[in-house]
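#struct-help
A.M.: can someone run this one for me? Single chain, 357 residues.
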Amino acid sequence: MPIDFVYNGAASNPSVADKLIAANWDAGALRPWLGPDGKSYVTLTRNGKAMTVKANAQATLTKEAWLMLDTAILKVARNRLRAVADLRGSGLTFNIPNGMGTTVLEYQKMNDTGSAIISMDGLKQGPDFRPIFESAYLPLPFIHSDFQYTARAIATAANSGAPLDTTTGEMAARRVAEMTERLTLGRLDTYAYGGGTIYGMCNFPSRLTGTVTAPTDSGFTAQAHLTEVLGFKQTLQNAKHYGPYVIYYSSAWDKYLDDDFNTNYPNKTLRQRIREIDGIQDVRTLDYLDTASSVYNMIILEMDSGTIRLVIGMDVTTLEWDDMGGLRKNYKVMCIIIPQLRADMDSNTGILHASTS
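D.P.: on it. Structure tokens below:
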């Protein structure tokens, strides 16, 4: 599934992007709907308000059909975005208005500016500390997947009164959701553009690292693992990142996390015991932390915007265009949802990635 750009006023897929450029990057230009009067309309946003205008292209879906398609697609996408959903639920997002027209986000890192002084009269001249800023860049590509309907399939559904089969749209949404999740976790190759690189939790160069004992190892006990978690927490605090934290485990950990902690904690699992640690907000399992070489991985993530946030230029959206003289209707599920992992100029960050090797 591709990650693409539209840049320098040129379209990597002209049949889609040229229309977006003409509409000032408003995705509504590629979502025409058929009104009760048989005419085609699009809904565009102008000055923060939704406006209905006549469409140049002939629409094939009614507003209700679009709603049904969007509902199916968003339902599938959100079910798969567990790490991404946690970040959004914690408010760790940064929205870019008209993100389709922005290819790179520029931001700045800053160093520590020193310390205060103590004096009796307040007249003692302190050192003149000035912060040093360093510019950094984050690419903002599209993540997208395509599907098609023939004009005949759409006409057949309309004439029969049967709902349009949304299975192919759901599959496309699942692919977008999985790609976004893996990008956030760092389980894809890094993506570089415009002087910046997209990293995830497992490949961020500034992340803290640790070694965890595999639950299949002869030396593993629930108490020993708890001690390792406490050590990881201390490592994060030493880097001046104090939480709150969410701990993510790869799925192979599940049967060990949900086993009894020990006989002194009746009816309490290892997962529950870890949640009792001060500053641990939750303990969760993620699908894409496993790798072929290491199935026992974990991430301790500080849920703070100084550590991580999602840059959202466009939420999951479905666009439409036609070809073959209108005999085929093409649809693209796409979004601009990019993880921004953050470290200061001293490379301090609130992400710790632990594995068995």
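A.M.: thanks! Helices lie at 14-22, 63-80, 82-89, 151-160, 167-185, 222-238, 254-257, 270-275.
D.P.: also worth noting: Residues 3-105+137-198+308-341 form a domain with the Major capsid protein gp5 fold fold (CATH 3.30.2400.20).
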